[in-house]
Design a protein that fits this description.
Elements (H helix, E strand, L loop, with lengths): L3 H11 L8 H19 L29 H5 L5 E2 L2 E2 L6
Antiparallel strand pairs: 1-2
Length: about 90
Amino acid sequence: MVTREDVENIALLSKLFVPEEELDSLTKSMQEIIDFADAINNAPSEGEAFDNINNLSNVFREDEVIPSYSSEEILKNAPEQAENHFLVRNRE
C-alpha cells in the first residue's frame, strides 16, 4: 500500500516539489500503477509461446544502393569546409 509518506519520501529523494493538494491524487495514481504492475506479474504465462504471435518470419527489407548526391554537390552548401568535410565551430 502506497502512503502519502511514501510519496513525500520519493519526492524528496527525487528533489521534486509536490504541492500538498496533489499528494492524495498522486498517492492514488502510484498505487494504481503498482496494482497494474502486480496484475501483469501475476498473469498466467502457461500455454502458447508468446515470441512470435504475428507469425512473422523476416520483417527486414534488403538493403538497396540508390544514387545520391556527390560530396562536391553537398559541400556547395557548407559555409566552411576542409578536406571534403563540413567544418563546425566548437562552442566552448
